[in-house]
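Hello forum,

I keep getting stuck at the same step: I have a sequence, I want structure tokens, and every attempt I make locally crashes halfway through. Rather than fight my setup again tonight, could one of you with a working pipeline run this one for me? It's a single chain of 444 residues.
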Amino acid sequence: MAQAGPNSYRALLNLGYLARSRGDQAAALEYFEAARAAQPQKRRPKLEAARELRKMSRLDEAEALYRSVLEHQPTQVRALVNLGRIATARGNLRLALNYYQAAVAANPGRTDLKRKIASRLRKLSRVNEARQVYEEILAQKPDDVAARARLRKLAQPRVSRLPPFQRSWLERATFARAAEWGRNLEALGIAAFGTSLLTLAQDFACGATEEVKPDCILLRRGDKTKILPLVSEWKEVDPIVKREAAALPRGHLLGYVPQDHLEIVESHREFVYHRASVADLAGSSLSTYRRQVRLLVKAGAHVEPIRPANLDRLLACNERWFAGQKKRGRKTYFRARTLWTFENLSALEALGVRHLVVILDNDVVGYGVASHIGAAWAVFTFHQGDPEPWGVAPYLLSEMAKLFPDREWINDGDAMRRPGLASFKERFTSNAGEKPLKLGWLKA
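Reply #2:
Ran it on my machine without issues. Output:
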């Protein structure tokens, strides 16, 4: 191509358009770059060059040009739309959604972009928001066939179908003795999986009845019974469990029941570890957790309480999480109970339930709901996130620890197999005197 003079800006643009029309992307890009060099302050050659770069899958270069346009004109619709396309090509639906929404805010008449917004919202399971967008389109253009068809296909919001929380449950004998029970669990050194105040309330929502005995609490749901021992010594637990289990038909126990206590020793509130050994804990490398938290924070994530403004997006995250579980062939036993928690969040505050969401790109990518049992451990009912490598669990754990400042938060690896601090004491006895370290949930 011959060298162009400074006054050939329009000719270079037109040559670029001609090259594009005959499918010669390389030549078109060359002409548009030459036009950009001739008139660096002009916006059009940047946009045209960026388009060719995007078509050639040179996304980083295209993105840089579109961003340079937005530096001088933040509401430039074409740049915003194409940044949305780049984000879509990279699989980042949330970022694409943000760009399309910014483009529509700059040009509210773009119905085609509103349909893109609704489509992204639908793919993110944000069904209520997608429905609102489609209804807005139809209010402006009742004959929009595509919007009407997609509106009909939207899934209906899921509900738990469980009775709402009743404040009268707080007066039940089970709750009156929950603090004692929780302290005993801590003394026994077991994580109260499935036995927090929140799950007690859910048991009652499922129709549970209670029987409080001097040394245990029995919760019955249908033909299933949950045994909650009110003792703080392992030697006292076995007789209670055996006695109550003997009165039940086989297979009628509900929830967590310790089966083998022979290798479990009484745990303590504090223990000392060799610092180099901490990263070896099964499933709970502190260095890995810290790296995951740092990546989230660097990406712009933050946590905030669950509230009406983000509840729909929380439910969408919940849908995506369960969809990921189903895709991997895993059962979703607790789906109704999870939804029940969200439906009763304001009432459950009285139980000491704490809840946070992780926000990234203006969307909820993870959530956690925790409750305490009197003076016992802060017990996680669940901490879940999108099926993406965000590492939201350690981030939620570190942030939720701050909501319970009076508790000792223990990074106990696989809590299903390693009860509390008991296994730590056995594992680290050989170096207990070296470099004392109080092991709690990490600080990012």
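The chain is about 50% helix and 10% strand. If your local run keeps crashing, start a new thread with the error log.
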